[in-house]
């Protein structure tokens, strides 16, 4: 059972203390006037979520002030906890404030004055890191444990493993506060935000951009600026997480944009990530079937390349053409420098350049690169390497390909072990059932 679920079953403040003690693995603690007291952390606890974080810290700081006045030990960290939320702060950030001894505290920690609450609240707002236990339980526990071990409040890293979880929390804390933006653009703004160190972006050519206006974050997308209705969620989110991600994760995280697109939109567009082990297997099979020099012999076109994972192993980029339904995918490939020398372009291969009679006319959209049109006209060997949206396949070529089996490997226009590729033959695209008219 999670800490949050246990806290909801608490019937007293003692229950709350015990649940946190167990979850945090605290050793050598005491329960006195200070609710939980260890050498490293002092805690103020409540048995409901009704008392504000500021009020709880005001009570806790009363004890800190008393310890300072007596010359007694003050721990490196201070924390407040209840059934709904928790927060942590470095003592060093507040001791200079307390050393002035200007606060009128009241008769006891629990009977603080309004003046004390106002003074503390105005000072500590930028110094503590707060967590909603229902959604950030793991982050609070790991941060406090790390603080005890290292002596520092270490923000949580954004990695490929927690990307979706971090994104969902970003939407709830920041995305919903962005005025006027469409939900389908959240992923683009999320990447602009996390790939920025506060001064400069880690990548050029990202579809969206994080800017600052009057010392407040604003987002730029498609020539429009989007401001935050409230900055509190932004402050709290980035007090928990570290940005930007480590350099070794950045490109991989950008390449996983598909995993953040809403499922219904992802299904419609066929935006599905191709795992690298599948890419390895595909390229092994292509070499086995078409020969070791196939990249030199064939012009290659991926008609729904997404952010280019299927071509991540490709070496001959000058004979590689990559098209995708979403123009934002092109921006991501540019930012991550994926297949730099390839021709990357926006194209709806099921609908673009089809005339009313159902015939292909590349002059309709004029999107097809000249090099690819020339290869088609000159009847060069063209291989279509593609990972289409299997999830939407019914009576289409996708369904046929997925059932075809593993024994269809020849050199002229057949699929290889369920790898959906097909060839140009005599300048004509080979027909693939009813997916489209080839």
Give the structure's gist in a few sentences.
With 438 residues, the protein is an alpha/beta fold. The chain is 36% helix and 14% strand.
Strand content: 5-15%
Strand order in the sheet with the most strands: 11-10-9-12-13-14
What helical percentage do the residues reach?
25-40%
Alpha-beta content class: alpha/beta
Shape: elongated
Care to count the β-strands?
14
Q: Kindly report the CATH topology of the largest domain.
A: Rossmann fold
| Average pLDDT, all residues | 82
Task: Note the main sheet.
Answer: 6 strands, mixed
Distance between the termini: 56 Å
Individual helix count = 16
Report the order of strands and helices.
HHEEHEEHHEHHHEEEHHHHHEEHEHEHEE
Q: Tell me the radius of gyration.
A: 29 Å
What are the SSEs and their pairings?
Layout (H helix, E strand, L loop, with lengths): L2 H6 L4 H12 L11 E2 L3 E5 L7 H18 L6 E5 L3 E6 L4 H5 L14 H11 L4 E4 H18 L12 H11 L12 H9 L13 E6 L2 E6 L2 E4 L4 H9 L6 H9 L7 H7 L6 H15 L3 H4 L1 E4 L17 E5 L2 H10 L6 E4 L23 H8 L4 E4 L11 H7 L17 E5 L2 E2 L9
Parallel strand pairs: 2-3, 9-10, 9-12, 10-11
Antiparallel strand pairs: 1-2, 3-4, 4-5, 6-7, 7-8, 12-13, 13-14
Kindly describe this structure:
A hairpin with a 3-residue loop joins strand 3 and strand 4 (85-90). Helix 3 crosses helix 5 (114-124). The chain has helices at residues 3-8, 13-24, 53-70, 95-99, 114-124, 133-150, 163-173, 186-194, 232-240, 247-255, 263-269, 276-290, 294-297, 327-336, 370-377, 397-403; strands at residues 36-37, 41-45, 77-81, 85-90, 129-132, 208-213, 216-221, 224-227, 299-302, 320-324, 343-346, 382-385, 421-425, 428-429. Helix content is 36%, strand content 14%. Residues 266-270 and 391-438 have low confidence and may be disordered. It is α/β, with parallel strands linked by helices and 438 residues long. It folds into three domains: 3-150, no CATH class; 163-260, no CATH class; 276-429, Rossmann fold (3-Layer(aba) Sandwich).
């Amino acid at each position: 059972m999670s800490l949050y679920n246990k806290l909801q079953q608490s019937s007293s403040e003692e229950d709350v203390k015990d649940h946190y003690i167990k979850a945090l693995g605290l050793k050598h603690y005491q329960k006195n006037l200070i609710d939980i007291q260890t050498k490293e952390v002092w805690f103020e606890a409540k048995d409901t979520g009704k008392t504000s974080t500021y009020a709880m810290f005001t009570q806790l700081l009363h004890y800190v002030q008393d310890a300072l006045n007596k010359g007694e030990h003050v721990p490196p960290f201070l924390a407040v906890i209840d059934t709904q939320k928790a927060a942590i702060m470095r003592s060093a950030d507040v001791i200079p404030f307390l050393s002035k001894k200007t606060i009128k505290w009241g008769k006891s920690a629990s009977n603080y004055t309004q003046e004390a609450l106002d003074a503390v609240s105005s000072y500590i707002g930028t110094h503590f890191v707060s967590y909603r236990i229902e959604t950030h339980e793991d982050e609070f526990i790991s941060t406090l444990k790390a603080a005890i071990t290292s002596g520092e409040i270490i923000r949580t890293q954004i990695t490929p493993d927690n990307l979706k979880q971090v994104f969902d929390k970003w939407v709830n804390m920041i995305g919903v506060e962005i005025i006027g933006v469409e939900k389908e653009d959240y992923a683009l703004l999320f990447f602009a935000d996390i790939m920025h160190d506060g001064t400069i972006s880690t990548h050029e050519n990202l579809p969206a951009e994080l800017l600052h206006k009057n010392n407040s974050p604003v987002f730029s997308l498609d020539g429009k600026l989007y401001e935050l209705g409230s900055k509190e969620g932004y402050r709290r989110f980035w007090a928990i997480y570290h940005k930007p991600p480590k350099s070794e994760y950045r490109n991989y995280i950008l390449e996983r944009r598909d995993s953040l697109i809403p499922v219904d939109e992802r299904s419609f567009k066929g935006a599905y990530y191709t795992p690298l082990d599948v890419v390895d297997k595909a390229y092994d099979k292509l070499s086995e079937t078409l020969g070791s020099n196939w990249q030199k012999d064939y012009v290659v076109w991926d008609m729904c390349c997404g952010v280019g994972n299927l071509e991540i192993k490709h070496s001959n980029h000058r004979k590689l053409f990559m098209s995708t339904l979403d123009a934002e995918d092109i921006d991501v490939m540019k930012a991550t420098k994926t297949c730099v020398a390839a021709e990357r372009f926006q194209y709806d291969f099921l609908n673009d350049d089809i005339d009313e009679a159902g015939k292909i006319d590349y002059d309709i959209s004029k999107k097809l690169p000249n090099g690819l049109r020339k290869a088609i006209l000159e009847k060069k060997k063209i291989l279509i390497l593609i990972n289409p949206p299997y999830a939407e396949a019914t009576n289409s070529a996708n369904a046929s390909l997925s059932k075809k089996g593993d024994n269809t490997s020849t050199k002229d226009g057949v699929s290889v072990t369920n790898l959906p590729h097909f060839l140009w033959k005599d300048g004509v695209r080979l027909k693939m059932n009813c997916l489209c008219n080839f």
